[in-house]
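Please, why this fold?
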Amino acid sequence: MSMLRFDESGARSTERTYASPDVAAQRREVLSLLAPRPGERVLDVGSGPGYLLASIAEAVGPTGAAHGLDPSPAMNALATARTDGMPWVHIDDGDAVALPYPDGAFDAAASIQVYEYVADIAGALSELRRVLRPGGRSLILDTDADSLVWHTADQELHRRVLAAWEEHLVHPRLPRTLAGLLRRAGFQVTEQRVYAMFNAQLAPDAFSTRYMDTIARFVVGRQGLREADAAAWLADLRARSDEGDYLFSINRYVFLATAT
């Protein structure tokens, strides 16, 4: 397994993707479900470029505290710039399996597209439970790789590309077991729902437009795929758009849980 790189270039690319209307809509849904309130202490595990963290900070206000945690210095630099002028925001360098906070430090926590990359998922969820107060809320969103639907003409090449793309994940099908993992870590799962990201057109600002480029860069040299194979895969998707039969969909699974 080889992770995606979140150096300065990778962080900037992620920031542009997170600015897309599709991801912004997902972020609004997450914020509505987490429902941070003025004065609360809220943690964002894997805060990345800081879009969600900034929204959390606005919700809790200066009487609260918003903490973002990410292992990437480049991501943390973007998040710091995005939350400039909010002294109640704290951005920390750290890992999900060893949260640098005392027991019961937070009223609520969110983690978006993070735990699918964490090898010790049980340990990470135990850490999340530890830093939440009893009754504290958590929201976790992750993707099942098998939920991806993309209309292509060359199905065999598409299968090979997606198989290589899975190498960037530790748990490509985490949502199937996440409810049980949360319960064993000391949470009561209060709600599970699916959030579908759907593109019927290959628009310049669509999530799938940037997603396909990220995938194409990653898969070259993996499972026998060459640059020519990645280029052919991209051309296939663009041809579907040109012919008016483009379709992309992927499911994100949302878990709401309370610390017992």
Q: What stands out?
A: The beta strands are 41-45, 65-70, 89-93, 106-112, 132-143, 149-150, 187-199, 248-259. The radius of gyration is 19 Å. Residues 8-144+170-198+251-259 form a domain with the Rossmann fold fold (CATH 3.40.50.150).
